[in-house]
UniProtKB/TrEMBL annotation:
Heme b binds at residue 526. Keywords: Dioxygenase, Heme, Iron, Metal-binding, Oxidoreductase. This is Psi-producing oxygenase A. PROSITE patterns: PEROXIDASE_3 (PS50292). InterPro entries: Haem_peroxidase_animal, Haem_peroxidase_sf, Haem_peroxidase_sf_animal, Oxylipin_biosynth_metab, Ppo-like_N. The lineage of its organism: Eukaryota, Fungi, Dikarya, Ascomycota, Pezizomycotina. Signal peptide: none annotated. Residues 1365-1384 are annotated as: Disordered. One of its GO terms (biological process) is fatty acid metabolic process. It comes from Cladophialophora chaetospira. Pfam families: An_peroxidase (PF03098).
Amino acid sequence: MSEPWMNGTASLNGQAGPTGNVQDELLQLNLEMKNLNYNNKYAKYHGDKLIGDKVAPKGFIANLENSLDDFRRILRPENFPAIGKVLIRALGGHGLDMKAGAPLVGALSNDSNRRRKLLDDGVKTKYNKMLHPPLTYLGDAFQYRQADGKFNNVLIPHLGQAGAPYAKTVPSKTRPLGALPDPGDLFDRLMARQDGGRNSQSGLSAMLIYHATIIIHDIFRTNDKDKNISDSSSYLDLSPLYGYTPEMQRKVRDGKYKLGLLKPDTFAEDRLLRQPPGVCIYLVMYNRYHNYAATQLRRINENGRFSVPDKYQGTKTEALARRYSKNAESKQFIDDCKEYNRAWKAYQAREPPIDADKRKLAQELQHIAQDKSLNTEQKKHKREETIEKRKAEALADFEHSDEYTEFRRCEQKMEGHISQDNLKARYREKIKDDRNVFEKDRRDFEAGYDAAWDKLDDDLFNTARLITCGMYVQISVHDYLRALMGFHQYNTNFTLDPRMDIDHKSVSRGIGNQVTVEFNLLYRFHCAITQKDEAYTETFMKTKMDMPEPKNLPLDQFISKMAAAAGYAQEKPEPCEITFGLTHDDQLRPDDTHNFQRNSFTGLFDDQQMINALTSAMDDPISNFGPRNIPQCLKPVEIMGIMQARKWEVGTLNDFRDFFNMPRHESFESVTGNVEIQNALRDLYEHPDKIELYPGIFCESDEDMGMDPGPSDVDSALWAAIFSDAITLVRSDRFYTVDWNTNSLTSWGMKEVTEDNDICKSSVFHRLLQRAFPGWFPYDSVRFFHPFYTSQQNALFAEQQGYASDFRFKPAAKDRVSEKPLFNVAESTPRKPRKPVYLCDVSKISEILADRTGAFVHPALNDMKNFPNEIQEAFGSGNAGHMLPHAPNPADRIHEDTAAIKAYLTDLMRYIVKRESIVMNNTTFQLDATRDFAIPVTTRYVADFLGFGHLVIGEKYPNAPHSENEIYQHITNCHVFLSYNADETKLMKRRKAFKSSIKFLYDLTLYGNISEASKWKVSQAFFGRKRDNPMTELGFEVAQHVLKHERSPYRAAAILVFVGLHTAYNSVLAFTSVLHTFIKEMYDHANSSNPPSQDAKWMKVQELALRDDAESSKKLSKIVAEAELTSIRLPIIRTALKDHTFDGFSVTEGDTVILDLYRANVEAFEAARLEGRPSNDSSFVNHTASITEQFADYNPKKLASMSVTAMIKTIAQMKNARRGHDAQGRLKKVDIDASDEGYSNFMAPMRMQRVSRQVDLTEENTDYVYTKDTLRPATDTYLTAEWDEFVPFPNTWKIRFDGFGKSNYSKDGERFGALKLPKINEDALAAPPFYQPQGVSQYGGSFADIACVCNTPGKECHCKDAVKEKEAGKDGSAPAPKKQLQVEREMALSTGCGVGK
């Protein structure tokens, strides 16, 4: 029986199927399928177009259709407003309005080509705005330079690190000769200096070579055992000063005082002891500069980053007592703390080892080491015996001293404050529960104290290092590179500054560097060694290295002698004990420029010796770069260099030129124009292609064998490579590019090292000299024009380029041989600064200021060339001492209309307050009392007084040409230059500003009241300018009186401009200082646990200010005047033009006389208080004494005093005048302590006390070391608004007030409760964000490569070995390795002598 599907009754799916012979049909279908041709008509039905990726059509037609569709969509009516906005902005030159154009972009279709391009460009632009990946990271490991150069490139942290192998720049393509020339023959025929040598005619001095030597030893330090390794980093990080390992850095740091300093005159690199002394003096200067920078950073304390939390302030014992004692706010506790601090300082100054004893011990040990009668074991025994003996003697002597006894007494008293009975309640409870809990809290506090001071030390040190390295690289760019490129011979400050902010995508920067073997060879500037230094080197080799005939020393003997010297160096002293030079005896002679010994008291080298050596080097011309000019005593050194170059398989000279895209030498004639060198090269190498890079690169020269550097590097491969490498060294360093900013260096540090293009054509080296040797050089010494040139060459360039008036020199004669002009530069020669005559006695100061004999003159008037010609004529040309004041006639004196002037000032000040005040809320206003009040007020009244008020923009004259800030800047420029200047590095800049500003003010004054007063009365009536205020009227009257004595309006204008300046002399300073004194006193009352008994003076000032009677005005003036006398610390300076004897003291011609008015007045007030008598005006001396007192027809001091009192009165009328919030409300004043010696600039204060104490303990005459005579008085200086420079006058200080009226500072029952500052828990202040302790970021976080400290050079690390702390268990398992604390680990060092983990 057949199945249903076989007869067609059903289908496979159960449905009825087709009738007929289905099988035949299916067979036929199978045949058709087998014979199916895919190229037939069915192929077009295959596939599914809907599932494919959408592809935009291409081609001209498709693009045209796409563009037409874009235009149709954009040109819809709803888009017309947006189109109009875009067109208007574009046609107006303001670019595309992206906001208005957004709807137009949105109208484009998803398939629009223009939409796609806009998206692509937008993503690309925004992506390229960022660095990928970032180059700057947070944490000490990245913010500061590491000792070994690690982390310069965070992503390749070992790139350029100390201990890395040299890189190789140039591929070796040329096949060398099979038998290369003998290195000795190469030296003899191509390199050896002939008798007499060849001096360069470039004018460059040995100072350039000394700087090059520092650079060379900074980036190249080939490892003694593996010549492929460089022990130092590949960055310009001053490793000769700081060292290239943490251990080397530790040895040069002055860690005892925790102030970020280096030990006095100490540097790390002992290889430089074999160099001429000038090289070591360079490092001494950088050492002093570092210490100066660290000191200034601590004084400024930008944003609080260089201070410890309040609870850690003071000594550790004092901090402990403050924390735990219940009596911490009592007067007795405060007195005990002061007593303890005095005793502690005296103890520290006397504590052994005394520096003098250390020096003597070092000399004893040196004698032992050099004693040839002792063997090694005997030397060791005698060393140990001597050290122990001296140590015991010093300790015994100290324990019997008064300082020791007093300190122990005070220490016991302080410990008594933290005994159990005197503890705060919460700590007594801890002791009751568990004594160990309290002891642990104390240990934790002490650990936190140490960590906080360690962090301060590290932050100061590392930031000062960044600043010092910044000065180093600035000198390298703006002095060294400019000198090599020859730009100083032109009147331009142009230089190739590698740090330019070029598009980082096309020219990378800050990505790291690795030094190469080729540049190791190129930086051998032995041919430029001066003849003086050649003689020194020969003598050094003879006397210090036992080489009797250096010029004829065979290589093997040289190597033996060097090995012997290296063996002796194994017992070398600490870096702070190292001396340099030739003969080392105990006698120190300032005229000896070869023997540099440390002073046994200070540890410093002698300034006079170093100055003599530097001055000699500055006038010592370098030798010619080029062939046959290397000192013959360096023959073994050059032979080893040639041999090493061959070992490194360095490419040939032509390979090197190929790499730098320079034409190959096709003949020996193209290498050099000198026939003898051509023949020597031909004899030695046979073909130019075979000339080795070293010494071949130094053979490229002219016919006279010269290849001195210059503006062009077209022909010389040496200079092309040197300039390229200089650019690379700086640009590849992250700290000189990406992180070259105020965040890294601070605002002050950045300004300190930034070049000034208007001073010395951007040279900055003079700053290093002035910081290292304060007061030695005249600030306008011609040697500063470019210290890498000789003084004669500098004088010639200054004469030719129009700078002669800026420097001290005079034309002399002509050189008989060269016909070059010669100059007398004696006035530019550095001299030891004489200590000034320091006066702080009211009677003596008054006697100086009242002198009418011409014996004393303001220093500015002693150098009249800084003034315009008209002022020079008015004040007398030449010696200002001949300018005697005329006798004043009291009948002729001008008496201003006091009431009218006061009314004028009051109206002016109220207008300024309304104009400048900022509304903080409905009742509170903020005003910058200095910048937006005192400065505009002073500017206005000076301008009106001199008669050009109509030229200053204001309410009456909105279209005037000058702003108030512009006028005040000119006034300030004059005052700053004429005031006591504590920073000599700024004097050239300030003189330039003064000359411009005094001329500007003179011109305005000439056409102001002087012009009006010069007219006939008829002309004044019809054509004169209206005098619309009492101040202009007063100035006009003064101008008339001046013209009575000086008929020439030009000279009369010169006199009046000085009278005008004197009316504003110190006005802003006086107002700010007085107001700050008053308000500070209120805050002291509010926030002190023991407020003063007397009420704050400000309350009395406000009471008087709200009254209008004459008596109140008189009392107010007296209070302000007294506050002014004792709040301004700005000395007056005079120069003695002849010998003069006063009652009890005498002055010698040339002496600088410093009049410390502040100290004199403070002592006078204190004397009056102790004697119980009232103070009166005759007891004090006014700070406004000035050179204009000679013009007796009008006393401008009174106007200055009236203006200060009026400004104080206006502020006092404000309701609840108080400080602004946070840093804006703190007057940024920096106290500069008095100093007795110049070296106090770069020594810790406690070290200075040790020096003073040591001097007291000796019986020798130590006046040449230290005297207690004041060198610089204590002064107050202020920071600019950007905190980037010290200036004598304040710039900004914000206060707040609640309108005008009677003040009420009371709150919560306290008289000054509203001024009480909120107190935050002291432990919270020692945690982020208030204080950031050192954490894992100090080591680089997860970027760090950690190694155990036991990983010492040449030894294995055993920290991972199993440590058996207990017996093994029954299971026989090994105990776990001993864990190390974080402090027991440090970053791995790859210095070629250890294996990093």
